Amino acid sequence: MRISGRMIATLSISLTLLSTSVVAQAETSNDSLENTKQKLEQNEEKIIEKQKEQQSANDAINNIQGELQSLEEIIHNNQAELTSIEHKMETTYQLIEQKKEEIIILQDKTFERQKVMEKRFISLQHHDRTNLVIDTLINSESITNFVERIGAVATLLNADKELLDQQQVDLKQIEDDKKEIDEQEKQLASQQESLITKQDDLQQNIQKRNESLLAMEKSYQSLSKEVTLANQEKASIESQLSAIQTTIKNEQAAEKERAAKVAAAKKKEAIIVTQAPVQAPAKAQTVAAKPAKKESNSTNQEKPSQGRQLYVSATAYSHEDTASDITAAGYNIKKNANMKLIAVDPAIIPLGTKVWVEGYGVAIAGDTGGAIIGHKIDVLMPSSAQAIAWGRKTVKIEILD
């Protein structure tokens, strides 16, 4: 009968251990399930936070793109304005060039008129003007001839006065035209400088905006990657959660099976106990296993000083274009091909005069030429090719001495 008592004791211990094991496994699976759900919640909060940051970055990019579009329109309008001003400047430049040509013609007229007046003054110095008029009138043949001579004398005297008056008018017009040209050139230069400055400012602004846009796009891409990784992590956690839930289902099924076995075992134990004598049963000591405690888990070229100014028509030549290498003032332009020298009309600019020529620099009036008459000059170049490249220009010159 001792064998039967031992069997009952063994069966009781087995049942207790089985129940304890089942409870421990269930608690472990539930803990894993809770921890996984907690991780999933944290991951979803992280995704929501990154999506908000991503949306903020996207809104900032849209704002910058709107500002860029406005800047592009301003730059387009400014470019149109700049083109308009450049067109006006070109028109004004052509008017200036025309005015320079007119000045040269007036200078030549005043120069020729001055020579006529010099001849008349020399003639008056040899013949007293009053005696000349009296002689003219006395020598008249008749009253009709006398009247005619009076008219002729008056005409000559008036002609001299008109000549002098016209000379003064033309000289004043030349000076006025020069001032007008200078003022227009300053005004146009100022307008162009202002527009270029404005265009530069806009280009710098749009460059800054582009840099900001690039930075925001990089931030957006970085956030997108983080969101993608978080979503991947979420998928992984969900997969783990699904696996745990499957495990729990399997454990629950196993638990039901074990419960059925325990029930069967208990039934068998009851039968054995019923059939055994009273003194036979041995006391079975069971040890209850304590469930495991949950552990909480806890888990970033300079212009000189101003002198007398003239506008001239300027062409160019070199020693390769001349029959002689020696100029009218004795300079050897073949040996000194790079010297600054101009051919002039000595009646306008005396030989040996030091002058400044616009676009050429400081030079010496050291040569003459058959075609250099009036307000014309020929600038010396080192070669024929450079002389041809110079072409024909209307330039300002200043007499330095």
From TrEMBL:
Location of the Peptidoglycan hydrolase PcsB coiled-coil domain: 105-176
Comp. bias (Polar residues): 297-307
Annotated keywords: Coiled coil, Signal
Signal sequence bounds: 1-26
SUPFAM superfamilies for this protein: Barwin-like endoglucanases
Domain 3D: 342-400
Coiled-coil stretches: 23-88, 157-240
Protein name, UniProt field: 3D domain-containing protein
